[in-house]
Amino acid sequence: MRSLLLLIFLFFSFNVFAQQELRGRIVNEQTGDPLAYAKITYGDKEDLSKIDGSFSITLTKNETQFSISYVGFETQNFKVSKDVEFVRIKLTPKIESLDAVTISSGKNKANAIIEKAIARKPENDPEEKLQKFNFKNYNKFIVDNETATLEMASDSTNLEIGAIINSAASYFSEKVSRFYFSKAEGLKEEVQALQTAGFEDPVYEILSLSVNPFSLYDKDFRIFETDYAAPLQNSAFRNYSFKILDTTTTSRPAYVIYFKPKRQRAVAGLEGVLYLDTKTYAIQQAKAQLLGAIKLEIDQEYEYFPDENLWFPKTQKITIRPGNGDQAISVFGGVIAAGTLQKKESILNNILAPGRGDPNLFLNVTSTNFDIQLNSEESLETPAEILVNADANSREDNFWKENRTEILSPQNKLSRQRAERLIKEKEVEEKISFQKSIATGYYPVGFWDFDLGKFFKFNNYEGIRLGFGGKTNEQLSKKFSLNGYLVYGTKDEVFKYNLGTSIHLNKATETDLKFNYTRDIVETGSFNYLQGKNDFSIIEPRFVNINFFYEHRTLSSGLTHRFGSDFKTELRLSKSDIYQIRDYSFLLNGQEFSEYTLSEATFSFLWRPFAKFLKTPNATKLIEKGYPKFTGQITKGISGIGGSDFDYTKFGLLVEHEIKRLNQSRTEIILEGNYATGEVPLTHLFHSLPNSPRRNGILRRFSVAGRRSFETMFYNEFFSDKQAMLHIKHQLRPINIHRLIQPELVFISRHAIGDISHPERHSIPFKSLEQGYHEFGIELQKILVGFGLGAAYRYGPYSLPTFDENFAFKFTFHLDI
């Protein structure tokens, strides 16, 4: 082992003495402004400056001849000694001339080239031109510290060599995949091999990170949760300005086109250069950068296939470093930096991410396509976007040697060793597990995951609802879990509880057999979908002001199963004894029922046909939501079984759609319909999610706004056995005031219509929605750490006499966890 470390030491020492890094910056002599992508020729090599005019070049000779050229500026030639560490190069402006570029157009010549490149996308974009293709891909993903090379220390006694680890964040993974494309199903990935240094269990989260865009032909492309405008999209001239820098003199000459975002605050864009083939206007190579809260660099190269006259993506390298925001690189939080150009920070990431970043920290992803098969008929038969082979995590060394497109450098091997050590020392695996639990509303303690929603709540009937609950995790058993809760209301002074178990029959298809007994209260007129429940929320806006409940004691059994990736179902059989808390009775055939028994069979489904999924050997994971999504449920009440008193059928369908735009604005549309027929008591009919308490005065009705509730509709004002509701929200792009203060202005329009059959069966008065209910709202969300304000106004047939009665003032709370 000592000999190996000594050899590594000697290797690094030799290279340090044999090479010298020359850093520099190229600027406009008159203005001092940096010159992005200036051409640097040295020896027989070429390079380009970065968008801030900087460059870094390794010199191997005692003296090197340099030539610096930039369109519109005088070329500068000079020699540099190997002893020089930094140069500042000032270029003098001149009258622009481009004899090498001949485009018959009176327009801006760069724009004319881009127009032709956009027009030729159907012939140049592999995803548009080809019906099918597939290729293998080798991917290497590293997070490390640039200064964390081996620091050698020796003492006078034994020449012991040690590695000093000076980085608190490190990650190393390799992946081999085969990608399959068809016009019908798009691009799908089969992961054939995966290894992540330092982790005992497979780390599939890394597969869902959008790191490597396939090409820059797309309308937009995603890098770490941020969508960037592509320079060859149809609206390219709206988002980018273009300029010709050069033409190459290779066997396939290319125009070198510089592109720069026009409205970076509105639309996320990158600054870079495109090498466009002078004959086909296809992309040969692309370089792009972003400087700001992060430093992002992308370098793509394409390979030419003469038989198809097509340039196909070949290699890609992405490097990310902390920028002026000094934000840490966090792989598993999905956050690289805060601000308009990256996903916003969340509470979890502030707690679990490393915090302020080391300026030497970097993230590097290299990706190489090989064994490219154009017009191949092979396909990947799976509904998932990414499929992980069962043996992907147990590949032998020979497999890796055969499929690596580049050998691991000594620095790569050191990064891997450092990752193995740090991930264990920092208990990263445990932190990831903890983060997953918190994000879904649970706090893990040993074998028990505490339900965060059970500790404390408040409503007008129970007062303060205190308690605890949760479920067992895999530390107890991987074959089953136990669940339950116990809560107490300080106002009604009654304990409520639940006991249950889930037997995991098949993890891959999420087939679970469930048994539960519950004694609790439920809001009258509520309709809860078994599937499609919203993500965990710290605050339940409507719960505080609910005052019309009924008590139920329910014994149920159920079965969940996932068909394919996008269709999840649940079947439940239940028997409930219903007791009234409020003075209500159901009148049927001359009888008055205040207490009754209901036996129900319920089928619920969640269908996400446009979502993207990752299928592992043991589970299916959602990696991109995709819209619209559909949640449905049908419930059959069966009289005569288990003493059930009534026979009825209930239907519910919820359609949710979301449109996100590059400028970070968003439109959300929610359409829901409910229908009930038969002998249905009021407890099991439908309300429209009202969210306004019956109090005089605007400030006395001040409450928390909900996601799909009617903010001006009073509780218990309307009930229906058939209804339809429409919610439309349009959020303007965030107002970027500060990293933590980015308020969002939202306009809301809500509508509902419905009716009630046999209102005489119910002993309390209420109104129907037959004339249609309408309200308009406006919210300023996320003014500070998720908190905001809003207002809504009720208009139309059910408007009330005074402004005060129609107006609602709201508190909003939207917190990313």
Shape: elongated
In terms of per-residue confidence, which ranges show pLDDT below 50 for 5 or more consecutive residues? Answer: 5-17, 96-106, 148-168, 326-330, 332-357
- Bin the helical content: 10-25%
Helices, by number, come to 10
Q: Whole-number average pLDDT?
A: 84
Largest sheet: 19 strands, mixed
Rg computed from alpha carbons, rounded to a whole number of angstroms: 32 Å
CA distance, first residue to last residue: 45 Å
What's the count of strands? 45
Instruction: Decide which structural class fits the backbone.
Output: mainly beta
- Provide the β-strand percentage band: over 45%
Helices and strands in order, then pairings?
Layout: H1 2-18, E1 20-28, E2 39-42, E3 45-48, E4 54-59, E5 63-69, E6 76-81, E7 86-91, H2 109-119, H3 121-124, H4 126-129, E8 132-145, E9 171-182, E10 186-196, E11 220-223, E12 226-229, H5 236-239, E13 240-247, E14 254-261, E15 271-277, E16 283-291, E17 294-305, E18 310-322, H6 347-352, E19 361-374, E20 386-388, H7 397-403, H8 410-425, H9 428-439, E21 442-445, E22 448-451, E23 456-459, E24 463-472, E25 480-489, E26 495-506, E27 511-523, E28 549-563, E29 567-580, E30 586-588, E31 591-593, E32 596-607, E33 612-615, E34 620-624, E35 629-637, E36 648-660, E37 666-678, E38 690-692, E39 703-704, E40 710-714, E41 722-731, E42 744-755, E43 773-784, E44 787-795, H10 803-806, E45 807-813
Parallel strand pairs: 1-7, 10-20, 20-33, 38-40, 39-45
Antiparallel strand pairs: 1-4, 2-3, 2-5, 5-6, 8-9, 8-19, 9-10, 11-12, 13-14, 14-15, 15-16, 16-17, 17-18, 18-19, 21-22, 22-24, 23-24, 24-25, 25-26, 26-27, 27-28, 28-29, 29-32, 30-31, 32-35, 33-34, 35-36, 36-37, 37-41, 41-42, 42-43, 43-44, 44-45
